Amino acid sequence: MTVVVTALFRPAPDRKDELVEALRRSIPAVHEEEGCLLYAIHDAADGTITMIEKWTSGAALATHAAGEAVKALQANLAGLLAEAATVTTMTPIPAGTPQQGEL
Question: What angle do CA 67, 4, 103 make, to 5 degrees?
Fold first, then answer.
């Protein structure tokens, strides 16, 4: 079963552009990881940045979480966040059409 993750980042004052760039730099390596279906950042009107991820399985997510790309990202985020990221891991509840009812 696929796994979807959201990670909500609140940038430190005047550090949003640096935060986005740090996240952006991590994306190519993660896209190459086994099991990565989606790894994308989004800008919200409230100034937060949300990473939306989709993995083929919990095992693929666990491998990612313990991997070098995450370690590098964590190091690159030092001083850029107002608080720790809020990470939520979810499994889909299909509804409606397969294309519209499941991420």
Answer: 140
The overall average pLDDT reported for the chain is 96
Residue-wise pLDDT for 40-54, tens only, equals 999 999 999 999 999
Looking at residue 74, what is its pLDDT? Answer: 95
Q: Which domain holds residue 59?
A: 3-90
Please check whether residue 71 lies inside any domain of the structure. Answer: yes
CATH of the domain at 57: 3.30.70.100
Per DSSP, what are the bridge partners of residue 7?
51, 87
Q: Strand order in 86-90's β-sheet?
A: 36-43, 49-55, 3-9, 86-90
